What does this fold into?
Amino acid sequence: MNDFIRDSLDHCVKCTICETYCPVSQVTPLFPGPKYVGPQAERYRGAGLSSDASVDYCSGCGICTQVCPQDVKIAEINSRARAKLWEKRGVPLRNQMIARPTVIGRLGTPVAPLANWALHNRAVRAMVQSVVGIHRDAPMPSFAGKTFQRRSRSHHGPADAPAVVYFHGCGTNYYEPVLGEMVVAVLEHNGFQVIVPQQDCCGLPLQSNGNFPAARTYVRRLVGHLAPHARAGLPIVSNSTSCGLMLKREAHEILGIEDEDLKLVSESMYDVCEFLVRLHDRGALRTDFGSLPLTIPYHAPCQQRGHGIGKPALDLLALVPDLDMIELDADCCGIAGTYGLKKEKYEIAMAVGARLFTDIAATGSDLAACDSETCRWQIAHGTGVTAVHPIELLYRAYGLDGHTLDRLVTTGPHPARVAG
Amino acid sequence: MSYDTVVIGAGLAGLTAALRLTEQGQRVLVVARGVGATHLAPATVDVLGYLGENRIEDPASSVATLVASSSDHPYAHIAADQLATALDWFSARAGALGYVGGLERNLLLPTALGVPKPSALAPRTMSGGDLTAGGRFVFVGLKGFKDFHPTLIADNLAGARLPAPVAARALELELPPGRRVDMSGRVIAGQFDNERLSEWLIAALKDRVEPDERIGVPAVLGLRRADDTWRELETRLERTVFEVSTLPPSIPGIRLFDALASALRAGGTRMVLGVRAVGARTSDARIEAVDVANATGTVSHATDAVVLASGGFASGGLELDSFGATHETVFDLPLIGVPDTGRVRFAPAYFDAQPLSAAGVGIDDLLRPVDAKGHPVYANLHAAGAILGGAVPWKEKSGTGISVATGYAAAGAILAPATRAISEAMR
It folds into this structure.
């Protein structure tokens, strides 16, 4: 293990800045805060078991690490402590299930209509809550039926254009393949051919749920698919901010993977908006945008902020005529991947997101933009508005769909709350 | 992206510089390792509280005295009228927080430990605690809130050196049932904002305060609507009510950060936290781009000017390595005030003058870091805040004043046509 994560706790000066930002400890006494379970408790953990289970209430949003002025890797320390806890206690079945999106995806996709009916049926959900522990009201996306991987096979882009590799992630593959097609269309519009390699889960949900060995297996397999392209010098883009961050940083820092291939992939990874802004910096982004006369609130998800790249989505959307983006400053939507799905954490996640939901509602817009899929689903659930990826707005502004504005549709799930 | 100015640091100095530049239409980027010291300091602006052991009543004339004998002091590089302008500008920017005071007379406000501390400016929620004229005070604590101890405050004030007699007592209230046992200032502030905790406080205090007592409460009256809550308390209790700073985190400090950050956001300036400025691409003694390390690598941000406001030793702008050598951590700039090898760096008694604490970057009158000969290291690099040498802020009670004044002046130097002309000529 690379110990620079654990060693960073020595830099903690107990300033409590992380505590003032932790969205979870502000709404529940069940989580005593990132400083207490992080740099303070870690001193006593050593190699052994953590005696304190409260670390499981950390949502892993990572805000503590972002705001820490002393470079203490608080969220990373906590993520490892959580894994240690579950290593001893055994990861519960529910957490094993929801942490394997590809397994769920493969099960649900062939029977999408039935699965979607079940996911949104109150009686079924009540049963799932009591048997499995997934909260009956937690936002669930709908299976698309035909995966992005399958759709992309029949798509033939320009063959002799410069290539870019697309890491679409599980959310796009199983639930939002249309978003994947938009990403491809926007990249092709800018003169790229898009390579869609075979790919699997990045392991992030397993990491968040404390199963590090399985997470390592997944991320190594994914890196195996992506590394040949990175070695060939091709950029890899992702529209999933958390999965992208997993490859950029977390697989190394949290899972402790020391691997040349991973390093190569990390250095080749770009968030799709980051990639397009860099293109614009070189004067290579097409700016033939049509007008989008809309005012839309934008939430930069926690994991997006963890990239340390600013807010490239806003930089891009500022180029679209008549589009007015409202930059929100609420910290977190609460969902944190799979955290808000759990029956004991659902209410916490909704309380965390309350500020964001109020701010979005206050804009009066029936659309919101956000880069991360689970956050969009949570925003749609918490507000009833349609939540879109910024790429969808670019896609519309480029006129790539030929549709009019009234066809602007969500890339998220059913916006209405599951519960009546 | 290319910028007019890249600001390194998100503390009071960096935010001040960034906001003034943003207001003047510049394209600004703020990068910082994390949130700065706003969240730890009481949000007062302390221009000058002490000259030696003497407490200062009139900062304006005392700053003049200070700079007359200390040419390396950051204030020596700020024109007297500019200091006043900077404070006015600051008060207007933090308008919703309602800063009162000025350079003519220091307020004397009790700290979380009950020490009278001189401040030039304070949010009006705090200014009622001015001890200068003496009087009767009651300090109200909340049982279980570990960052505020009213008895400590009252006892320490009883022994404090004060200009007029002060009678202080402590009162501790039991929060209503259902409130959490382990309370942080952030959580209580949220309850004042959202859950009408003021109703409970008013009822709890109504019959327990004497008619001539001023009421000091912990500075947790909310983040979003503290000013309204404070007014409501004063009106309904018919007393002077004032917030007293708590142990960190500082809720008024967070309000200040939020106000400045929100003004920056409204002006289109991006602040990126959790990243690290690691160096620069330079040419002919000019910085052409600042290198910023993020999750995977280093991005170079082309810029016309740079404000270095990365803080002092506590914030990592300066470091003392294990060999006893002192460094500036981003550009490895030359430093002033560092005790020579073999000389005493730390005095044995904690509260004695600590020789190393005056170490920092030396600047010219355009706030540009200078080398040993007094020449600017880079024509377009300006420094502000705690990274500056020549001051001992914790002794002088001058830290926040230096941050506001030098942040404002660094922006002014960048905006001044003369600077721009020199900068262009050297390009």
